[in-house]
Write a structure and sequence with these properties.
Belongs to the cytochrome P450 family. This protein is α+β, with helices and mostly antiparallel strands. It has 14 helices and twelve strands.
Length: 396
């Protein structure tokens, strides 16, 4: 009998059956090869919480700026996400100061009203797509309101944003790289227009006022504003979709959310985080996890696997909304921890809180459908209803 070909553990994650729930596959990788050299990626792959945390918090030995390992980086990719200290420090401080200067309570109050109105409208329908009709539009409105600019049309923005996300998996599918670089450049050009004619309020207004004294190059500034728009939108919309799927497909979870709002969102992030993988490059020979990584070696961190590591989380496959403490790596750690994490958490808490409070009968009508992305995990479609279950078939 002919022996079956060996299954690649990374490419296998893209199979629809595994894409729905990659965590058992992560567990097998973590148990058998927690530090794995993957030939196709040309990278070390880490799946343990302790190893991933060590890399995230050590920017001296593991770089986000691949120029430190001799790589040439296209100009559209130089941003707060890809620079390391000391270049990274100036742009991060400028953005953080801008974040702190905003009236986030006023923004949240306005968001609450928008969420209530949109849910009331959707509740009148037999069912709706939670991704395209709730998570994506609410996330885009929220992020652009924080920036102080008008939201672009979803028909223009969403496909471009998805092209950028697809490019994050270019190590496996190289054909996705060039379209993603082009999409980043278009978004950076769009963001640059904000600086030419800045609004009077919001993060863009603050950045425009203080840019001249920041020492940040204009290209990096434009790219970083693009990154805030894109990462803020993708983190928020994908987190909201994943979290809603976790709640609405787990018996009793929506009701439990009302009792544990302070810890529930963190647990939903740990349970099914939008950021499943991150990458660094080793800049000096380093021993980690029992192997020696050479200078120039890429390192891929499977944060989704780390968030389900039983050495760090008791019963990781269970959704425990009262879990505390919860040191998940869903939004990274260290110098490159996600700037927009607090916005994504607030948005998700607001939407799910409104669902649990006002629509406790909300339920899934169909299984959530996932996009074929491994770096950023998210839904393509999720049909739900806010109406009580009468036992009759619900049609979209």
């Amino acid at each position: 009998m002919e022996q079956a070909a060996a299954v690649d553990p990374i490419l296998d994650l893209a199979r629809p059956s595994i894409l729905r729930n990659p965590y058992p596959s992560y567990a097998r990788m973590r148990e058998t090869s927690p530090v794995l050299w993957h030939e196709l990626l040309g990278s070390w792959v880490l799946t343990r919480h302790a190893d991933c945390l060590a890399v995230l918090t050590d920017s001296n030995r593991f770089a986000s700026d691949w120029r430190r390992a001799g790589e040439e980086i296209p100009a559209p990719l130089l941003s707060v996400q890809t620079l390391d200290p000391p270049e990274h420090t100036a742009i991060r401080h400028l953005l953080l100061d801008g974040f702190r200067a905003q009236d986030r309570q006023a923004l949240n109050d306005g968001l609450e009203g928008q969420i209530a109105d949109l849910l009331a409208e959707l509740a009148r329908r037999p069912s709706f797509d939670l991704v395209g009709e709730l998570a994506e539009p609410v996330a885009l409105r929220f992020v652009t309101a924080f920036l102080g600019v008008e939201a672009p049309g979803l028909d223009w923005f969403v496909p471009m944003s998805r092209t950028v996300v697809d490019g994050m998996d270019a190590g496996l599918w190289p054909e996705k790289h060039e379209p993603a670089v082009a999409a980043r450049a278009r978004l950076a050009e769009y963001a640059g227009g904000w600086l030419a004619d800045p609004p009077k309020e919001g993060l863009i207004a603050y950045v425009a006022e203080h840019a001249a004294d920041s020492g940040v190059a204009e290209t990096v500034l434009r790219n970083s504003l693009r990154a805030v728009l894109h990462a803020g939108y993708e983190s928020a919309s994908r987190l909201l979709g994943n979290a809603a799927a976790g709640l609405l497909t787990t018996p009793g979870a929506l009701e439990a959310f009302r009792a544990t709002p302070a810890t529930a969102v963190d647990e939903l992030i740990r349970y099914d985080a939008p950021v499943q993988a991150d990458a660094r490059v080793c800049v000096t020979d380093t021993e980690l996890g029992g192997v020696t990584m050479k200078a120039g070696d890429p390192v891929t961190l499977f944060l989704g696997a780390a968030n389900h590591d039983p050495l760090r989380f008791a019963h990781p496959a269970e959704l425990r909304l009262d879990r505390a403490p919860n040191p998940h790596l869903g939004f990274g750690r260290g110098a490159h921890a996600c700037l927009g994490a607090s916005m994504a958490i607030r948005l998700t808490g607001s939407v799910l809180g409104a669902l649990a409070r006002d629509y406790p009968q909300a339920r899934a009508v169909a299984e959530p459908e996932h996009r074929r992305n491994l770096t950023l995990r998210g839904l393509d479609r999720f049909e739900v209803t806010l109406r009580p279950d009468t036992g009759e078939e619900v049609r979209p």
